[in-house]
Write a structure and sequence with these properties.
globular, seven-stranded parallel beta sheet, 11 helices, about 260 residues
């Protein structure tokens, strides 16, 4: 299903606009109803728009490309470290946690206490950091294909791996947040991975600095109601804070 949706999106992006009949023909072994459900999913994720038997690219969401990890590594270092320290203070012994990919998550991994934890991550660089610095932790990788932009593994069965784990707390990162699109990311496979983690976790903590506010990436992986605790800085803004509180999110600020 994940691969089929990715193929549909790639086909639509390559042509700009495609009639539904042509999309049905791409998968002769699937019913039109199944493909319509896939298109509905892509529309809800914000990647496409649908009308009059056609699907087209949502250009608004393609306007902001995902930066490479190395480009993001030197951005907002102070705030990322503050968020990481706050998140690390919330980790208790003998827990099973998921650590998302990204530069904020790397800072979190470095500040993680060396206690008895089971850690699942999709980021090999984070796994190696914990392995080298936190010998008390047991580390598992989701597997999948490595994305050079994000240094995250996704696709090719890793959502099945996630189903095998009981996740007490998922520490998540986002590439963008807006009130209309929710929490968004630039890669389809990573969107699917994040959704699977959030669905499995008992509690979800989102780490987000204020530079992410107002940005909309191609894929929505979570809405405010999917998040339990938002860790952020003081740049959230009164309107955004009121909106998130109305969705029953606990907000913790690092400064």
């Amino acid at each position: 299903m994940v691969e089929r949706r990715a193929a549909l999106l790639e086909y639509i992006q390559g042509r700009g606009e495609v009639a539904n009949d042509k999309l049905f023909a791409l998968f002769p072994d699937k019913t039109p109803k199944t493909i319509r459900r896939d298109l509905e999913y892509l529309e809800q994720a914000g990647a496409i728009l649908r009308s009059h038997g056609k699907a087209r690219v949502n250009k608004q969401f393609l306007a902001q490309p995902e930066l490479y990890y190395a480009e993001r590594e030197s951005e907002n270092v102070v705030i990322k470290n503050q968020l990481a320290a706050l998140a690390a203070s919330l980790v208790n012994d003998r827990r099973s946690i998921f650590i998302d990919s990204g530069t904020t998550m790397m800072a979190f991994a470095q500040k993680l206490p060396d206690i008895n934890l089971t850690v699942l991550t999709a980021a090999p660089n984070i796994a190696l950091t914990i392995a080298g610095q936190k010998p008390s932790c047991s580390i598992f990788l989701t597997g999948g294909s490595l994305n050079p932009k994000t240094l995250s593994c996704s696709g090719y069965g890793n959502t099945e791996t996630i189903k095998l784990f009981n996740i007490d707390i998922a520490f998540m990162a986002t590439s963008g947040f807006s009130t209309h699109a929710g929490f968004t990311v630039g890669e389809h496979f990573e969107c699917e991975l994040k959704r699977a983690v959030i669905a499995k976790a008992d509690k979800v903590f989102m780490l987000m600095d204020s530079t992410k506010i107002g940005k909309s990436m191609p894929f929505t992986f979570a809405r405010p109601q999917d998040i339990d605790v938002l860790l952020c800085d003081n740049g959230l803004g009164d309107e955004n804070e009121a909106y998130l509180i109305s969705k029953n999110i606990q907000i913790m600020k690092c400064n």
